[in-house]
Amino acid sequence: MLSIGIVGLPNVGKSTLFNALTRSKQADAQNYPFCTIEPNVGVVEVPDERLAQLAEVSKSKKVIPTAIQFVDIAGLVKGASEGAGLGNKFLSHIREVDAIVQVVRAFSDSNVVHVQNRVDPKEDAEIINLELILADLQTIGKKLDTTKKGAKGKVDDKIKAEIEVLEKVLDSLQVGKFASAQVYSDDEVAIVRDLHLLTMKPVLYVVNVDESQKSIKSLKSVKSDELNFGDAVEHIEISAKVEAEVAELSPEEARQYLKELGIEKTGLDKLILAGYKLLDLVTFLTSGEPETRAWTVKRGTKGPEAAGVIHTDFIKGYIKADVCDWQDFVQFGGWSGIKTSGKLRLEGKEYEVRDGDVCYFHIAT
């Protein structure tokens, strides 16, 4: 299951957003720093209108959407890499997630005090990015020392390659750039992955805007080098306050309320779409009488590995896959109709799963 960590300075709306996304009140959202100590975890079903249509055709007994795990992590402050605030405890929680959603504040509210006594989303991002970089500098520094001491003067090709990668990452961090800004070979990626660096994780910025959206301080005009992050600033604008209000309504009431505000997509929908794009994910589907279900994989995943998401034994046993587009599946009435429509594709082991594919995997027993 995809795990996304929600991070940000204290009082920027992290916990309010988390509660709205997960339709819960498990995260304490109060007007003081560190009201979140231990991370709150919520699992959210990914809305997918395709599932209901497939299930109706297949007369499925169950419908199972894919899901995302959101983790609300305690607010970060300047000096966290040196132990300030919740320091290393905060940073260790970030290491465990697949991607980071960084909430920066663009709303004004005299009743909610900003820890820096100002509203500046760009500076919010810079503070957090610097702390992540400083934490990774410590990690790389220790690893370099250990590796060089362990070599004891006898540097073989493997150790030499590791030292070169560590110094490559160090060069990036020392000039205030994320480790992810570097380009790595496949061998180098394997070395970097084992370091569990914070600055290698994909980052999406959520700009928490005023309800009226009249005083938005957007990151749109901010260049990536100013935020010290990779090649692009991926961000979306969400009003956590509006999302919290929507979470209290019925689905029909929520649709009407959003329509009145002129908002086309909920914050959850926007976040999921942006998250899937950021991580380059696609969803394939399976459908039959027992169940209709959504499965999430990385773009470019081949048939055997996609089947392995359903059950690991399917990877070795994979023979072929019956595949069609989900719209064709609905139009022609399921598998029986697809087989006579000319729309069925028989895919081998080199088949790369596409978003919206309906698959039936043939597995050797």
Major pleated sheet: 6 strands, mixed
Mean pLDDT: 80
Number of helices: 13
**CATH third-tier fold name of the domain at 300-363:** Ubiquitin-like (UB roll)
Task: State which percent range the strand residues make up.
Answer: 15-25%
SSE succession? EHEHEEHEHHHEEHHHEEHHEHHEE
Alpha-carbon Rg, integer? 23 Å
Give structural notes.
With about 375 residues, the chain is of the alpha/beta class. The protein has a domain at about 300-365: Beta-grasp domain (Ubiquitin-like (UB roll), Roll), CATH 3.10.20.30. It contains 13 helices and twelve strands. The protein has helices spanning about 15-20, 50-60, 85-95, 120-150, 155-175, 185-195, 240-245, 250-260, 265-280, 305-310, 315, 325-330, 335-340; strands at about 1-5, 40-45, 60-65, 65-70, 100-105, 205-210, 235-240, 280-285, 290-300, 320-325, 345, 355-365. The strands form three sheets. Strands 2-4-1-5-6-7 form a six-stranded mixed beta sheet, with helices on both faces. The protein has a three-stranded mixed beta sheet with strand order 3-9-8, with helices on both faces. A hairpin with a 3-residue loop joins strand 8 and strand 9 (about 290-300). Belongs to the TRAFAC class OBG-HflX-like GTPase superfamily. OBG GTPase family. YchF/OLA1 subfamily. It holds the Pfam family YchF-GTPase_C. One of its GO terms (molecular function) is ATP hydrolysis activity. This is Ribosome-binding ATPase YchF.
